[in-house]
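Lab notebook, bench 4. Still working through the backlog of constructs that have no structural model yet. Next entry is a single chain of 83 residues. Request: give me the structure tokens for it.
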Amino acid sequence: MLAGGSQIPEALLARRVDQYYVPVYEHLRSRMAAFQQQQASSSSSVSTTAGVIKRPFFVGISAPQGCGKTTLTDYLQVGQQMS
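Model written out:
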């Protein structure tokens, strides 16, 4: 939704998804797969009496207000649930 409550045109939204959100999702998915592969093959995990604790995978998104951070996060969550 644009300022003033107007809707984003469908073609513009589709272009934004195709040119921005999908490539970012694919990049993060490949980085996460590489991280998980590294976790499986390395001794970077910490063993405790409760079991093995693996290192977390963090993603930071820094951008100005209104640039789509929440929308990107929503798309990333949906993509992750579908994977």
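Notes after review: Strands lie at 46-48, 51-53. The chain has two helices and two strands. Flag for follow-up if needed.
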